[in-house]
Amino acid sequence: MGRSEIRIAGAGGQGVVTAGRILAEAAILCGRQATHSQVYGPQSRGGASRSDIVIATEQIGFPLADRVDLLIVLSGEAYEKYEPELGDDSRLIVDSGCTTDSSNNTTALFPVVETARSISGGLLATGVVALGVLQRFTEVVEADALRSAVARRVPPKHRDMNLKALEAGMDLVCVAS
Amino acid sequence: MNDVKKYLREWAMPHVLCPGCAHGIVLRSFLEAVDQLQLAQDQVAMVAGIGCSSRLAGYADFCTLHGTHGRAPAFATGLKLARPELDVVVVTGDGDGLAIGGNHLIHAARRNIDITVLLLNNSIYGMTGGQVAPTSPEGTVASTTPSGNTEPPFDPCQLLLGAGASYVARVLAATPTEMTKVMADAILHPGFAFIEVVADCPEYFGRYNKAGGGAEMLTQLAGRDTGVAVQLADKRFVNHIPSSETAPGLQTGVLRRETRPVFSGVRGGGDHGA
Amino acid sequence: MAAGCTFFGGYPITPSSGIAEQMVRSLPGAGGVFVQMEDEIASLAAVIGASLAGSKAMTATSGPGFSLMQEHIGYAAMAEVPCVIVNVMRGGPSTGLPTSPSQGDVMQARWGTHGDHPAIVLAPSSVGEVYDLTVKAFNLAERFRTPVIVLYDEIVGHTRESVTLSPSVEVVDRVAPDAGLQNFLPKAAQANGVPPMSGFGDGYRFHVTGLAHDERGFPTEDAEVAGDLITRLHTKVEDHADEITDVETFMMDDADIAIFAIGIVGRSAREAVGQARAAGAKVGLIRPVTLWPFPSAEVAAVAEQVDTLIVAEMNLGQMIGEVERAAGQRTHIVSHLRADGEPITPSALLDVIESSSRSEEGS
Question: What is the per-residue DSSP string for B3-28?
Answer without folding.
Answer: --GGGB-GGGPSPSPPTT-THHHHHH
